Amino acid sequence: MQNVVILGGGFGGLYAAKALSGHAKVTLIDRRNFHLFQPLLYQVATGSLSPGEIAAPLRSLLRGYPDTFVLLEEAVGLDADNRRLLLTHEAPISYTHLIVATGSGNHYFGHNDWQAIAPGLKSIEDATAMRHKILYAFEAAEREADPAVRREWLTFVVVGAGPTGVELAGALAEIARDTLRRDFRHFRSEEAQILLLDGSSDVLPAYPPDLSEQAARLLIRLGVRPRTGVQVTAMDAEGLTLDTPDGDERLATRTVLWAAGVQPSAFGRVLAESAGAKLDRQGRVMVAPDLSIPGHPEIFVIGDLAFLEQDGKPLPGVAPVAMQQGRYVAAVIRAQSQGRTIAPFRYRNKGSLAVIGRAAGVADFGRLHFHGWPAWLLWLFVHLMYLAQFRNRVLVFIRWGFQYLSFDRGARLITGD
């Protein structure tokens, strides 16, 4: 029987592990003991959901797969010639096949010091730090006597106008306009300014132009001010500097939230040094059409860490790509054990969705574009179905229903230092 080691318990790793059940001995290694549904992290950051509602223990998810083992560990190296993965605490683990699905982290474009000022959204810790920053800003504004400083606390800047940035900005506007409207005594939460910045010419730049324009209109209706064609060049605790078409501009704010970019995990460099993998400029591993590393057909890379072009364009780093790649690699390993080959991987794009506040969203299904209520309802359904456990689906559905009726966000907790 094949001995498959999977590194990473995200979408790609989890789907690969389930698809290999009954066909191989599988060891799933992750430094966390849970699978995280990252697309809903912004709802933790804005108090709609609690972390436990979008995460599920890996051992619980794989309980019904007796030939699958979970190991709480971190990989620090690779002996590709002898097919051994080097771990932090345990002895090296041998494999016949290795699937690397270690994902990505926040990318600050060479300004890692910005991370302390502008939290991103790639982990539960990121989300709770962002929630702290958002809610603390309102608390600081409540006790601030200087109107100018209060305006700085009530100016929220989201950097990056992709789906995460758009959804985050829309949620912030709803918090200020609806959720906190009666909570403070010395200012009106509706006075908050929400700015959405991006260096491209449109919000949701990866979407068709008509949906980008519609998203901008929906954001403006919520009270969000999109500013495109600007880039952040400097940042400190009291504001940031923008490079705009009219020159440099200083923007006074105490709350900056990062949604501008991601970078592949550092394990790509391990694969480059130990297995001769080639990396693109961003650090993603350039894989063969079957998602293996050229020269090492037993090592596969999937998800955000993998670089593969399809129809002349790189595949996006989104959950559906990782899911399909996880299932595909499992099929390749099964085929290899039977002496068969299968066709190269091809991503089947089932469409893109983004939600922009209450009862508003945009949907791109190739030739079919629509927005408003139908896109919002479809977004809700798809995200509920992608949650890993039935329990999570029920809890999130109840939370969303109560929030829709009451405008309340029950997880508005300031935690941490």
Quick overview:
With 417 residues, the protein is α/β, with parallel strands linked by helices. The chain is built from eleven helices and 27 strands. It is 33% helix and 27% strand.
Secondary structure: elements and pairs:
Layout: E1 2-7, H1 11-20, E2 24-30, E3 34-36, H2 41-45, E4 55-57, H3 58-61, E5 68-72, E6 75-79, E7 84-87, E8 93-94, E9 97-100, E10 104-106, H4 124-143, H5 147-153, E11 155-159, H6 163-179, E12 193-198, H7 209-222, E13 224-228, E14 231-236, E15 239-244, E16 247-252, E17 255-258, E18 262-264, H8 267-275, E19 285-286, E20 292-293, E21 296-301, E22 306-307, E23 309-310, E24 313-314, H9 319-337, E25 352-355, E26 361-365, E27 368-371, H10 373-386, H11 390-406
Parallel strand pairs: 1-2, 1-9, 2-5, 9-21, 11-12, 11-17, 12-13, 19-22
Antiparallel strand pairs: 3-4, 6-7, 7-8, 10-18, 14-15, 15-16, 20-21, 23-24, 25-26, 26-27
Helix pairs in contact: 1-9, 4-5
